[in-house]
Amino acid sequence: MPLKFTIDLYPMNNELLLTIDRHLTIKYSEILMLKACINYTNILMEDGRSVLSSRTLRTFEQRLFNQSFFRPNRSVIINLNYMVSYQKEVATIRMGNNESIIISRRRIKGFLKKSRTINDEH
Protein backbone atom coordinates (compact mmCIF):
# COMPACT_ATOMS: atom_id res chain seq x y z
CA MET A 1 0.00 0.00 0.00
CA PRO A 2 1.62 3.30 -1.05
CA LEU A 3 2.14 6.08 1.47
CA LYS A 4 -0.42 8.83 1.37
CA PHE A 5 1.18 12.04 0.18
CA THR A 6 0.39 15.19 2.10
CA ILE A 7 1.75 18.68 1.96
CA ASP A 8 1.20 20.77 5.05
CA LEU A 9 2.22 24.37 5.52
CA TYR A 10 2.22 25.32 9.16
CA PRO A 11 3.98 27.82 11.43
CA MET A 12 6.54 26.72 14.01
CA ASN A 13 8.78 29.11 15.91
CA ASN A 14 7.83 31.93 13.49
CA GLU A 15 9.11 29.78 10.60
CA LEU A 16 6.75 28.20 8.08
CA LEU A 17 7.46 24.57 7.29
CA LEU A 18 6.50 22.47 4.29
CA THR A 19 5.98 18.79 5.15
CA ILE A 20 6.30 16.29 2.32
CA ASP A 21 5.23 12.64 2.70
CA ARG A 22 5.43 12.94 6.50
CA HIS A 23 9.14 12.11 6.13
CA LEU A 24 10.64 15.41 5.13
CA THR A 25 10.07 18.86 6.55
CA ILE A 26 11.52 21.88 4.76
CA LYS A 27 11.53 25.51 5.84
CA TYR A 28 9.80 27.40 3.07
CA SER A 29 12.47 30.09 3.41
CA GLU A 30 15.09 27.53 2.28
CA ILE A 31 13.29 26.80 -1.00
CA LEU A 32 14.90 28.59 -3.95
CA MET A 33 12.49 27.33 -6.62
CA LEU A 34 10.29 24.45 -7.67
CA LYS A 35 10.57 23.05 -11.21
CA ALA A 36 8.11 20.92 -13.11
CA CYS A 37 9.30 17.56 -14.34
CA ILE A 38 6.27 16.08 -16.15
CA ASN A 39 4.01 15.00 -13.23
CA TYR A 40 6.72 15.46 -10.61
CA THR A 41 8.22 18.53 -8.99
CA ASN A 42 11.89 19.07 -8.32
CA ILE A 43 12.32 21.29 -5.24
CA LEU A 44 15.63 23.18 -5.35
CA MET A 45 17.00 24.39 -2.02
CA GLU A 46 19.22 27.40 -1.32
CA ASP A 47 22.10 25.13 -0.26
CA GLY A 48 22.06 23.25 -3.58
CA ARG A 49 20.09 20.20 -2.43
CA SER A 50 17.09 19.04 -4.41
CA VAL A 51 14.07 16.93 -3.53
CA LEU A 52 11.86 15.15 -6.04
CA SER A 53 8.15 15.13 -5.18
CA SER A 54 5.39 13.12 -6.79
CA ARG A 55 3.09 16.18 -6.72
CA THR A 56 2.58 18.67 -9.53
CA LEU A 57 3.46 22.35 -9.45
CA ARG A 58 -0.23 23.20 -9.18
CA THR A 59 -0.43 21.50 -5.77
CA PHE A 60 2.54 23.48 -4.50
CA GLU A 61 1.26 26.69 -6.08
CA GLN A 62 -1.99 26.40 -4.14
CA ARG A 63 -0.14 25.82 -0.86
CA LEU A 64 2.44 28.57 -1.35
CA PHE A 65 0.16 31.19 -2.92
CA ASN A 66 0.06 33.48 0.14
CA GLN A 67 3.80 33.24 0.72
CA SER A 68 6.62 34.95 -1.16
CA PHE A 69 6.40 32.52 -4.08
CA PHE A 70 5.37 33.30 -7.65
CA ARG A 71 4.80 31.17 -10.75
CA PRO A 72 6.28 33.15 -13.67
CA ASN A 73 5.58 30.43 -16.24
CA ARG A 74 4.15 26.93 -16.54
CA SER A 75 7.32 25.13 -15.51
CA VAL A 76 8.62 26.88 -12.39
CA ILE A 77 7.65 28.52 -9.09
CA ILE A 78 10.21 30.87 -7.59
CA ASN A 79 10.84 32.23 -4.10
CA LEU A 80 10.89 36.00 -4.63
CA ASN A 81 13.23 36.39 -1.64
CA TYR A 82 16.00 34.85 -3.80
CA MET A 83 15.38 37.06 -6.83
CA VAL A 84 18.53 39.02 -7.66
CA SER A 85 17.30 41.13 -10.58
CA TYR A 86 14.51 41.67 -13.07
CA GLN A 87 15.15 42.68 -16.68
CA LYS A 88 12.05 44.42 -17.94
CA GLU A 89 13.10 44.48 -21.62
CA VAL A 90 13.21 40.70 -21.89
CA ALA A 91 10.87 39.85 -18.95
CA THR A 92 13.51 37.77 -17.21
CA ILE A 93 14.21 37.16 -13.54
CA ARG A 94 17.71 36.28 -12.36
CA MET A 95 17.76 34.08 -9.27
CA GLY A 96 20.37 33.69 -6.53
CA ASN A 97 21.86 30.64 -8.26
CA ASN A 98 22.40 32.73 -11.46
CA GLU A 99 19.58 30.94 -13.26
CA SER A 100 17.43 33.08 -15.56
CA ILE A 101 13.67 32.54 -15.50
CA ILE A 102 11.46 33.90 -18.29
CA ILE A 103 8.14 35.43 -17.25
CA SER A 104 5.28 34.63 -19.59
CA ARG A 105 3.49 37.64 -21.08
CA ARG A 106 0.27 36.90 -19.25
CA ARG A 107 1.98 36.79 -15.86
CA ILE A 108 4.06 40.00 -16.00
CA LYS A 109 1.42 42.19 -14.32
CA GLY A 110 0.91 39.64 -11.54
CA PHE A 111 4.67 39.44 -11.05
CA LEU A 112 5.06 43.22 -10.76
CA LYS A 113 2.21 43.39 -8.25
CA LYS A 114 3.52 40.48 -6.13
CA SER A 115 7.13 41.72 -6.18
CA ARG A 116 5.98 45.17 -5.02
CA THR A 117 4.10 43.69 -2.07
CA ILE A 118 7.13 41.56 -1.13
CA ASN A 119 9.43 44.61 -1.30
CA ASP A 120 6.99 46.65 0.80
CA GLU A 121 7.05 43.97 3.51
CA HIS A 122 10.86 44.02 3.72
Q: Give me the number of helical elements.
A: 2
Largest sheet: 5 strands, antiparallel
Number of strands: 11
Overall, the morphology is: globular
Low-confidence stretches: 1-7
Oligomeric state of this protein: single chain
- Fraction of residues in H or I helices: 10-25%
Rg of Cα set? 14 Å
Helix and strand succession? EEEEEEHEEEEEH
Nearest-integer average pLDDT: 84
Strand content: 35-45%
Widest sheet: strand ordering? 6-5-4-8-7
Termini Cα gap: 45 Å
Helix-strand makeup class: alpha+beta
Set down the secondary structure blueprint:
Layout: E1 7-12, E2 15-20, E3 24-27, E4 31-37, E5 40-45, E6 50-53, H1 57-64, E7 69-73, E8 76-79, E9 83-87, E10 92-95, E11 100-102, H2 108-121
Antiparallel strand pairs: 1-2, 2-3, 4-5, 4-8, 5-6, 7-8, 9-10, 10-11
What does this protein look like?
This protein has 122 residues and is of the alpha+beta class. 18% of the residues lie in helices and 44% in strands. It contains two helices and eleven strands; from the N terminus they run ββββββαβββββα. The strands form three sheets. It has a five-stranded antiparallel beta sheet. Strands 1-2-3 form a three-stranded antiparallel beta sheet, covered by helices on one side. Strands 9-10-11 form a three-stranded antiparallel beta sheet, with no helix packed on it. Strand 4 (31-37) and strand 5 form a beta hairpin. The longest helix has 14 residues, at 108-121.
Annotation keywords:
2 helices; 122 residues; 11 strands; 44% strand; three-stranded antiparallel β-sheet; disordered N terminus; 18% helix; alpha+beta; five-stranded antiparallel β-sheet; globular
